[in-house]
Write a structure and sequence with these properties.
Elements lengths: L8 H12 L5 H21 L8 H16 L7 H23 L10 H7 L2 H26 L4 H7 L4 H16 L1 H10 L4 H8 L3 H6 L1 H12 L3 H4 L5
Helix pairs in contact: 1-2, 2-3, 2-4, 3-4, 4-6, 7-12, 8-12
């Protein structure tokens, strides 16, 4: 499957490489980045919120250690791999607990629910949802630095198809031009003069839809894969 766009993936892989080279403390760096994600997978698997004090969190913690030790790049994205390990270990735990009847896990781990979660497509859906949530948070932080809210972006969104196409073209040009993006990131403003002069773009149209253009440019420039579907033609 295609890898969801997890912002921490590169940092985790760097920690994994350091760990393999003998830097034992590197696993702590990876743990800080990955464990909140493991808790979210645990919550999705169990159908309820899981805190760091819950038994399921301990299982997720052990699953992370197992995944970190056994991971190899050919297994695919680390977040996908660790998500599968966490889910698998929790389902095994639920089966054992159900068999021993020590805790009421039957509300989640009944036969139908287990079969549903046995499909990889279910995990992919959860991972995609989490990746989309992380990308939305990341985009929101970048927009906030420019004094823009998601409500502002919605209000600045073009209503007509032809205008939306023109606005997306502006955003694509902006995202692909390092100098123009650097201007946007440093000032929080569109380089209107350069866009108008160098690319012959309509200044009034850009001013009217400035906030929407900035949002789309961030999505394209920073390759926010899960959000691209919302701005693609």
């Amino acid at each position: 499957m295609a890898a969801p766009g997890f912002p921490g993936e590169e940092a985790v892989l760097e920690a994994w490489r350091r760990y393999r080279e003998g830097e034992a403390d590197a696993i702590e760096d990876a743990y800080q980045l990955v464990f909140p994600f493991c808790l979210r997978v645990a919550g999705k698997t169990c159908g309820r919120f899981v805190t760091g004090e819950d038994e399921e969190a301990s299982i997720a913690r052990m699953a992370f250690l197992e995944a970190f030790e056994q991971y190899e790049p050919e297994r695919g994205p680390f977040f996908v791999y660790v998500g599968r390990v966490v889910r698998s270990r929790l389902i095994d735990y639920g089966r054992r607990e159900k068999k021993q009847r020590t805790i009421p896990f039957s509300s989640f781990f009944d036969g139908e629910r287990e079969r549903e979660w046995a499909e990889d497509s279910e995990l992919e859906s959860v991972l995609l949802e989490m990746a989309r949530s992380q990308e939305i948070e990341r985009l929101g932080a970048m927009l906030q630095a420019c004094g823009i809210s998601f409500a502002d972006v919605a209000r600045a969104s073009p209503k007509h198809w032809s205008v939306r196409q023109a606005v997306r073209q502006v955003a694509a040009i902006l995202a692909a031009d390092a100098e123009l993006m650097n201007h946007l990131l440093q000032s929080g403003e569109l380089p209107l003069k350069k866009l108008e002069k160098e690319y012959g773009l309509n200044r009034k149209m850009m001013e009217r839809h400035r906030k929407f253009i900035i949002a789309v440019a961030f999505i394209l420039h920073f390759d926010l894969e899960c959000l691209k579907e919302y701005v693609s033609p």
